[in-house]
Amino acid sequence: MSNYKRCNDEVNNDVPPLILEKSTELCSLADAKFARVTYDEVESSGPAAAPLGFPAPRGKRIFIILMFQKRHCAVIVIYCTLTLTFSGVIYGTVNRSRIIRGSCRSASSTSKWSSESILLLPDRNEHGYKLGITLRQTLCGYVLKCETVTKASATEKTYVEEDLLMQKNESNLWVQSGECVAIKIDRRQSMKRLHDKNSTVTNPENPWKEVAALQLMKNEHPNVIKLLGAFIDEECLYEVMPYCSGGTLNEYVRHHQNGISETEARHIFVQIILGLYHIHSHGICHHDISADNVMIDGNDLKCVLIDFGMCLRVPHSYPDDSGATDDTTDESMGTTRRLIHSHNHCGKLRYMAPEVYSKKYAFDGLAADIWSAGVVLFNLITGRQPFERPDINDPGFFDLVDETFYWDKEAVNPMMSWGREVSSELVDILMIMLKSDPRVRATLSQIMKHGWLSIH
Ligand SMILES: Nc1ncnc2c1ncn2[C@@H]1O[C@H](COP(=O)(O)OP(=O)(O)O)[C@@H](O)[C@H]1O
Ligand SMILES: [Mg+2]
C-alpha cells in the first residue's frame, strides 16, 4: 500500500477542515452490526427475499361533515378524509385543489403586490407556499423552488393608491417570509400509470415510497433530506423539503474540470457516508446514490442525500429462524439482512452496481449503495465518470475491474490516466469500494475506519 507516492493535497482555504469530531464520530459508529456484516454472512442468513413494504404514513383521522338539503330534510353526509400528522409531517387527502391564486409581496411594506399561485397547507389556511421557478422536471411532475407565505395582517394590508391588484383582492393577501423550500409535485395520474397492475413494466420509482421512507427516518439526520410536509389533493402529491441553495453535487463538480481537491472531496464524502449510515441503520438501501442525488446546502459545502423514490426496505431473517424460511422481517429484530431478489432496475447506469445491472443475481442492497458511493467519489476526484454502464463490454468498466490497470499498486501515480495525482490512501479506498465482486467489496464499517477519512 505504501508503495504509492503521497500526494500533497491542494490547499483550499474556502473549505472548512474536516473536524476531528467527524472522524471520531465515524469510528465510534463503525462497529454497528449492519455496517460490519459481510456479503457472505448476508448470503448465509437465508434465501434471497423480496424487499419489505414500507409502513403506511401514520397520523390522525379527521372527518368533514357536509350538509345539504334534500326534500326539505337535512341529510348529513359524512365524508371521511384522512389527515395524518407525524413528526412534523402532514399527510392529507382533500377533495379539492390546494392551489389558489392570491396577491403576494415581500415583508417590506414598500414592495408591490403581485398575483401568484399559492399552495395552501391542509388545516392551516393562514399558511401556504408561493410557487416559484421550476428547478427540475421529474418522472411524474416537477420540483419547484417556493417561499413560505402567511395571510397578511390588518397592518400589513397597506397599499398605495395605484396598487389596484391588491385593492381587488383584499381578502386574499399574503406576505412572503423569505424562507425557501423545495416542493416536489407528482401528478397522481402519472404515478398511477407507473404502477398500473395491468402494465407489463413495473417501475421501481415510487414517490409514495419516498414519503414513507422519509417518515420512517424521522427527519433526524443533517445529511439526509427532511420532509417538512407531504399532502395530496385530487391532482397531485406534494412533498415539501428544505431548499438546498447550492445545487446538486454533479453541478458543483462540473465547475471543476479535473475534479476537486482531496480535502474538499473528503469533506463531502464523509457527509455522504454519514447520511448513508443513517439510511442503512433504518434497514433501508437508497438504491439511487449519485452525484445528482446529493444536494449542496449553503456555503460551507454541507451535503444532503435526496431522492428516495427508488429506495428498498431490506428484508431480515426472524431471530428464531435458522434461515430456512422465506418469511422475513425488518431490521428492528437485530438479525442479519437477506439478499434481495434481482428485479427490474431503473436508475443511472453510470452509478449502478454490476450485480444489480446483471439482473442474474440477488444482491445485497447495502453493498450496492457502497459501489455507487465509490463512483461518486471517483467522480469528485476526476471530474468524470469511470464508465457508462457496468458491463464488461464497456471499456471504462473493463479497465476499472482490471486490477492491473489504474489500480496497479506499483504505479507511481495510478490515477494519472485520469489527469490526477492522488494520495495512496485515496487510491486504496476507491479500489476497495469499486470491487465488482460484492463479496470482496468493503463494508460500510471498513470505509468508516479507512485512513483516508481521518487525514486532517
Ligand atoms: N431540496 C431540494 N432543494 C433544491 N433542489 C432540489 C431539492 N430536491 C430536489 N431538487 C432538484 O430537483 C432535482 C430532482 O429531484 P429528485 O428528488 O432527485 O427527483 P428525481 O427522481 O426526478 O431524480 C434534483 O436533482 C435537484 O436539482
Ligand atoms: Mg434524482
- How large is the radius of gyration? 25 Å
Which class best fits the helix and strand makeup? Answer: alpha+beta
Number of helices: 13
What number is the mean pLDDT?
82
Spatial order of the strands in the main sheet?
A: 4-5-6-7-8
What's the helical proportion of residues? 10-25%
Name of the level-1 CATH class of the largest domain: Mainly Alpha
CATH superfamily of the largest domain: Transferase(Phosphotransferase) domain 1
Overall form: globular
Oligomer type: single chain
**Low-confidence stretches at least 5 residues in length (pLDDT < 50)?**
1-13, 59-89
CATH topology of the largest domain: Transferase(Phosphotransferase), domain 1
| Biggest beta sheet summary | 5 strands, mixed, barrel
CATH architecture of the largest domain: Orthogonal Bundle
What's the number of structural domains?
2
Query: Which molecules are bound besides the chains?
Result: adenosine-5'-diphosphate, magnesium ion
Sketch the topology as an H/E string, one letter per element. HHHEEEEEEEHEHHEEHHEEEEHHHHH
3D structure, described in words:
It contains 13 helices and 14 strands. The chain has helices spanning 20-29, 33-36, 39-44, 164-168, 188-194, 207-216, 249-254, 262-281, 354-358, 365-382, 395-401, 424-433, 444-448, and strands spanning 61-70, 73-86, 89-92, 99-105, 114-121, 124-137, 141-151, 173-187, 229-232, 236-242, 284-285, 294-297, 302-305, 312-313. Bound molecules: adenosine-5'-diphosphate and magnesium ion. Adenosine-5'-diphosphate (ADP) binds at residues 135-136, 138-139, 143, 182, 184, 225, 241-244, 248, 292-293, 295, 306-307, 309. The chain crosses the membrane at residues 73-94.
